[in-house]
Amino acid sequence: MLSASKKLDLTATENSFSIGFTVAEYQNPATVYLEYMLENYDPTWQKADDKKTASYYNLQPGTYLFQVRGTNSRGLWNKEGQQMSIIIHPPWWDTNWARLLFISLISGIIYGLYRFQLSRKLALQETKRLRELDETKTRLYTNITHEFRTPLTAILGMNNRLVSFFKNKNNPREQEALDSIQRNSHRLLGLINQILDLSKIESNAMSLKMEQGDIIIYINYLFQSFHSLAETKQIRIHISQEIESCIMDFDQEKIQIIISNLLSNAIKFTPAGGLINLHITQTKDNNLSLKINDSGSGISKTDLPFIFDRFYQIDSSSTRQGEGTGIGLALTKELVELMSGTISVYSSLGKGTTFTVLLPITQKAALIEKKKESESMTIAGKFLSTKPATLSSATKVNEQLKDRLLIIEDNTDVTLYLKDCLEESYQLYFAQNGQEGIDKAIELIPDIIISDVMMPEKDGFEVTQTLKNDERTSHIPIILLTEKADVASKIIGLERGADAYLVKPFQPKELQIRLEKMITLRRKLQAHYSSGKVFAFPKKQETTAPALILKNIQTENAFLLKINKILDKHLSEDHLDVAFLCQKLHMSQSQLYRKIKALTNKSIVAYLRTYRLHKAKVLLQNSNKSISDIAYEVGFLDPFYFSRLFSEEFGHPPSDVRK
User: Fold this and answer.
1) Which end of the chain is more exposed for a tag (fewer CB within 10 A), N or C?
2) pLDDT tens digits for range 83-95
3) Rounded to two decimals, what is the model's pTM?
4) How far apart are CA 180 and CA 167, in angstroms?
């Protein structure tokens, strides 16, 4: 009989084996015949050989049943033989979990390739869309700027005629206005030319007019043209050169644009007291090196890779240091590369920026004629050396009675325009950025403020919020001027506390009416507080006040109530005077005077005296003390003087109150 295990587990590498079997000892082996069969492999029963073994080779993974049967002593086959289950396990890569892994892996690869192709296709489409958008934008700017040139030409032409007409009239005001027109027209024309130049470069229509000459002399001439602009901003500019002369081919117009853009940017972002240096040298590989270094605000690492992109602005916030379009550096880079040069930039945030321009030194073009060289320098100087406008806050003696108006505006020409519109009606003061405006407002306590929104350091919204939350300046009406005409910007300004919002460009008459309305509003506020209600210690909103000033009363009631509490506590003390009150309120005498005057149209002394009289009236109505005692209690040392002032204030003597 078969003697073996009932089950056999084999690995995929154990698929070749032999099985031995034998006949039980109590039987006569000579009379027994054996057969075997491996189900799922042997088609029929196999006769056993003399060795009584069955051998199998390279079986496929699966489940098999090995059977052995034999004959009995009578030669009959046993119906039930011996059986053994054999399992050959598949290799790991042929298992279900391996198939699932392979399917997942292949699916992932296919999906990844699909996503890669899709993202690549989308990226190409986006690049194409951005290119088309950039082309559309450039085309739009080009078309618009072409249209701008015609009216600008007419403006500059007529302005030149007016300049000639007023030249001998000795009228500084008209001359200043004409200078402003010329200055801003040239600036606008320069921007138009830069946009057109970008368009020409893009369409490969920009050509070079290379001429051979001494570029060092030309650069020095251009550099000197920026001295006046730097001086107005209290910036030192210096040129250092390792070579005295360099005869080479260059395009005068392109060099002028490159130097102008780089120096203008350096001056724009360098604070007062800073330094700008232009270093000129010749490199070993025969290039002219121009390095413009400034001690300005610097450029962050995130912005640095994009500064030469068109229309990209490092600071697009409302507190940016200077105006700009984002095309100057883009054009500079294009022009440098057009002349086969390179431009690079290194910057450290808060320490400064260095632009390096390398231009190849060649001597192939024709020499510049001396006469032509002189003419070109004259034209370049005329274009660059437009004298910046200057402001003065000088106050004339006959202006002392006018209302004080503080103008917070970083654009000098706009400030000059406002000055021209308003100087006859107001005593003017000026600030060129938001922080300076806040400081001057707290120092001067003006009657009204006009503020731009987009300014360096602090914008108009921050100025408004700061001043409206300061009890020294909370009463001052503020008009915001801005280029932003959208409703959202207006809402922000009004939420911060602005009393009016005016969009540039504005009509002078509209501005004057706005200011007059603000002054009228202040007069109503003064009338409200001059009525004597303030001395009744109001704790709630005065509903009888004019509707236009309800917003102001809530803040100013708290301020006056604060003063009244101090006065009430120290009323009978000898040291209660203006200096003591200023100390308690942490305000200077001029600040407190301007604040009290704006609210009540009274001086501090007059307000203190009026408060004493109203306090005395309350005591006369609610106590049995004598008039002399009450006079002493509220701070009057002379009862007769007290009675005279009381009669002037209320129209009757103190004794009538008792009656």
Assistant:
1) C
2) 888 898 888 888 8
3) 0.56
4) 15
